[in-house]
Amino acid sequence: MAADALSRVFSALADPTRRDMVARLAVGDATVNELAAPYDVSLQAVSKHLRVLEDAGLVSRSRDAQRRPVHLEAQVFDLMTKWIERYRREAEQRYRRLDDVLAAMPDDVTPTRGQESPS
Amino acid sequence: MAADALSRVFSALADPTRRDMVARLAVGDATVNELAAPYDVSLQAVSKHLRVLEDAGLVSRSRDAQRRPVHLEAQVFDLMTKWIERYRREAEQRYRRLDDVLAAMPDDVTPTRGQESPS
DNA sequence: CCATTCGTCAACCAGACGGTTGACAACACC
DNA sequence: GGTGTTGTCAACCGTCTGGTTGACGAATGG
Q: What is the CA radius of gyration of chain B?
C-alpha cells in the first residue's frame, strides 16, 4: 500500500474532502473540530483523513491543551510539481520534435508557407 | 466514485505502476504490449491500468490494425498544477503575513496561551 | 480458411478505504 | 474531584481496487 512518498501524496489528494481540508488549511491552522465543522461526517472520520494527510507529509499536528492544531506543510507540493513538470516537459519536447518533422516535410503538403510557383 | 476530474487524476497517479507508464509514454506512444513488457503482471492488469489513466483523461487510445497505440495527453497536468499552485501560493502568502506580524511585534511580548501564573 | 497476435470483457478474490459506533485518554474548568 | 471538551483507538461494515484466470472479438497473415 502506497509504499513511496509520491504515492502517498497523490493518494491523499485523490479524496475531495481531503483536498478541501488542505484548501481550508492554506488559509490558516485549524483544530480538528474546526476542520470537521463543514462536513457531515463523524469526528473520527475527519481524524482518519488527517492521519492520511499527515502520513503523506502534507500536514503536521502540534499540541495546545486538549486541542491538536493542524498545520499545512506546503513543501511536499514540490514533490508533485517536480514529477509532473518533468514529464510534461518531456512530452512537450516530443511535440516540438514532431513539429520539426512536419516542417521538414515536402513542400507540397505544406502549401501555406509562401507562394510556390504553381506548375 | 471519484466523481470529479481532479480526484480521478490524482487517484490515477497514486499508483506507482501507472506513474511509470506515464513516464514511459512521455517518451513516445506505445502499444499495450510494449507498456506491459517491463512489469511482471498480466496483460489484463495493464489494460485495467490504462483504462484508469484514460478515464482520468491522462491518456488516449487510437487504432492501428489490431494494435491500440496509447498516447499521453499532457494537458490534464495543468488541472493538477493549477490546484497545487493555488494553495501553495496561499500558504506562502500566509507565511509572509506571519513574518510581518512577528516583525511588528514588540520584543518583550511573548505570546502565551496558558493563564498568566501569579507569582 | 485457419491460426496467431493483440487486446478487452467477465468473474472472482484478498486487501485497502471511507464510513460508522463505542470506549477511553488527556486536559480544562468549576 | 467530578464534569465537560477535544480528540484518538478499536472493531466492524460495505464498497472500491489491483490482481488473477478464462473466454472471447477483431484483425493479420499464412
A: 24
pLDDT by residue (tens digit) across A55-83? 999 999 998 888 999 999 999 999 999 99
Among A15, A24, A67, A87, the residue to mutate for chain B (most B Cβ within 10 A): A87
Nearest Cα neighbor of A24 from A14, A37, A11 is A37
Cα–Cα distance between A114 and B73 in angstroms, integer?
32
DSSP letter string, B79-103: HHHHHHHHHHHHHHHHHHHHHHHHH
pTM exceeds 0.70, yes or no: yes
Q: What whole-number distance in Å separates Cα of residue B53 and Cα of residue B21?
A: 9
Task: Answer whether A47 touches B (CB < 8 Å).
Answer: no
Q: Determine phi and psi for A71, rounding to 5 degrees.
A: -125, 135
How far is Cα A50 from Cα A61, in angstroms, rounded to an integer?
9
Count contacts between A and B (CB, < 8 Å): 81
Nearest-CA neighbor of A93 among B59, B72, B58, B83?
B72
Cell numbers representing residue B108 in the block: 518583550
Residues of chain B contacting A25 with CB distance shorter than 8 Å: 91
